[in-house]
Design goal:
The protein is of the alpha+beta class. The protein has 13 helices and 7 strands. The chain has a 4-stranded mixed sheet with strand order 1-7-4-2, with helices on both faces. Strands 3-6-5 form a 3-stranded antiparallel sheet, with helices on both faces. The longest helix has 21 residues.
Amino acid sequence: MLCKEVIKQEDFTEVSEFLKDLSRDNPKWESCNPKLKLRHVTWIFRGQSDSEGPLIPLVLRPEIIPKYKHIFTCAPHNNHDQIRAEYWLIEEFRQLLDEQGLPIPEDSQEFRAGWRNEAREILDVLKGKRAWPPDKYLSLMALAQHHRVPTRLLDWTRDPYAAAYFAAKEAATWVVGETIPPNEGVKNLSVWAFNTFFSDFYYNIDGTVRTVRTVTAPAYGNPNLHAQKGLFTLVGPKFFPPNEEVRRYPFVEYIVDKVKELKNKDKQQISLPVIMKFTIPIEKSREILRHLSKTFYINAATIYPGFDGAAEALKEQRLWDKT
């Protein structure tokens, strides 16, 4: 019963109603706290082409690490090996950026000295004595995430229509037969909404335990992040016992468990729902793409600013419905 209170699901069959309900003009997205209405975007959004797909960060999916065979030979089974793999992925990404003269977020001599002298810090992380990931890596991880390097950050956006675009784009390629969905029998796409009031004010009070956290990174120098109004969530503890099995916890299950824990422990009144889920059949994905482009100017050109984005926007019109 609590799960249904924490997660409210709304199912649609018509694109116009689906997009109308997602609109930022909908009063449901306003903060319940009057002090926050002018300065805080409470709800953030994520699109999923398969509404039943779990919300798990890319690097925590067991099939991802073995794809980097030049560094790793198998999927990590414990926290020590998982964090070691994540560290080397982000460190090699940083080195390649530097070799090509590309900007590194929050770069400084102090930061570079840290990279050269960080062996002890990383060893403490691997032993479960220090936090992972350290705050100093978050902006670099955000940049890596937006260029398809796997991290434990989960992508979100402040724009519900951008989330709808991401969900509809891949689903449309399934509908026209260009690509094959990863799971058989996919029926609906979805847009998830998460109330960050929960993470910011209810569960980050104890500084020794990082449970649910929203992460922002500098949009300067990261045009995709800026255009997509992107930000991230990070879940889990600060410290990971090295020999414990990797916990591949779907975001939604994690939130439900944390609400239960908080209600049982502190008997606090929590503003529900914390999560909302909006679904619509994948057959409507082509109509969604057309509406988003023609009515709201959301397409590849605005989501991926630059020459390649403009070219993709021209190509993706092949996915639109013919109405």
